[in-house]
Amino acid sequence: MKMTMDGFPAGQEMEVTYPAFKVYLKLTSTTELTFEIKEGRFARTETVAIQIIPLGNSAFAISWTEADGATVTNVQDYDRGLVHSFVTLPGGEFIRMTGPIIVTTPAQNASDDRPQRNKALVVDAMTSLFQRRDTSAVERLYAPDYVQHNPHIPQGRDALRSLVAGLSSDVFYEPGLIIAEGSFVAIHGRIRGWAPAPQVVIDLFRIEDGKLVEHWDVLQDEVAVGAAPGGTAMFDSDERAHQIELGSA
Question: CA angle 38-41-44, nearest 5°?
Answer without folding.
Answer: 40
